[in-house]
Design brief:
Layout lengths: L2 H32 L4 H5 L11 H10 L4 H33 L5 H12 L7 H11 L6 H7 L3 H14 L2 H9 L4 H12 L1 H16 L3 H6 L8 H12 L5 H32 L5
Length: 281
């Protein structure tokens, strides 16, 4: 390739990447700037100006409103997303391990049924899940959101792939020869070898539960049980009548992003290892 054309190609690629980065980061930049504004500057469109800096007041209003109900919603979201993602990762890895390492009648047909679940939008399952919750008496409780979060068909599919790539059959056979039972072989050998897959499923499910809106909307009527997504939506609906809610909604949305950033930054080492492992095997 001619040196001049090569330079032009690299420049074009860099420009495209820069535009994509700006496009991706702009909503976050807007959110950070808007969280520092009072209602007047926020509604007046002066989001990126240096006037109207009022972050401390916005945080105090967020803390004081209804005795700090925002942070109760924050705790609820951490419970739903943390416990739900952890349980889902365990269930998915165990199911993927079983589909990969064991032979039983109808295995592939059952796995095809699991894959069929990947094609179903989560909103289509909300009504059946609600009817099941009514029958079990779990409507308007933490369990109504936690129990459905434990099942993720895509997590099972992903875990089977990780199990096939990370857990050699010879290692499990050696564990059985040493006297380990099937549960011990999975817990002490298989699960530890498939940690990148476990973390990947955990991150996917944590993000999905944290951003989940429709299922809590269907299941919950008690505001004390709301997650952040539903609570902020409730405030945004009130903002149409009372504009003073807008700074609280924006500031609350900024704080709501923090756990997702922390989770990805903290666990990215395991996640990257899982994404690149197949390329060097």
């Amino acid at each position: 390739m001619i040196p001049g054309n090569r330079w032009l190609s690299k420049s074009a690629v860099n420009v495209v990447l820069l535009i994509a980065a700006v496009y991706t980061l702009f909503p976050l930049i807007w959110l950070v700037s808007a969280a520092t504004k009072d209602a007047g500057n926020l509604l007046g469109g002066d989001v990126f100006s240096l006037q109207g800096f009022d972050l401390a007041h916005n945080l105090s209003e967020l803390t004081a409103y209804q005795d700090g109900i925002y942070f109760r919603w924050y705790g609820n979201s951490l419970l739903y997303a943390g416990a739900g993602a952890l349980g889902c990762a365990l269930v998915s890895v165990a199911a993927g391990y079983a589909f990969d390492k064991y032979r039983f009648r109808g295995k592939e047909k059952l796995f095809a049924l699991v894959l069929l679940g990947v094609l179903l939008p989560s909103t289509t399952l909300s009504l059946p899940l609600y009817l099941l919750a009514v029958e079990t008496g779990t409507v308007n409780t933490y369990w109504a959101v936690l129990i459905p979060a434990l099942v993720n068909p895509f997590g099972v599919y992903l875990s089977r792939i990780f199990s096939a790539g990370y857990i050699p059959d010879e290692v499990l056979e050696a564990a059985r020869i040493d006297g380990a039972g099937e549960l011990r072989a999975f817990w002490s050998v298989g699960l530890r070898m498939v940690v990148p897959g476990f973390v990947t499923v955990f991150l996917f499910q944590f993000t999905a539960i944290w951003n989940n809106f429709f299922l809590p909307l269907v299941m919950l009527s008690d505001k004390d049980l709301y997650p952040l997504s539903l609570g902020l939506y409730n405030w945004h609906s009130n903002a149409n009548a009372d504009p003073s809610f807008y700074p609280m909604v924006v500031t609350g949305s900024l704080l709501a992003v923090t756990p997702l950033i922390i989770a990805f930054v903290t666990l990215q080492r395991h996640w990257k290892a899982g994404l690149t492992a197949g390329s060097v095997k």
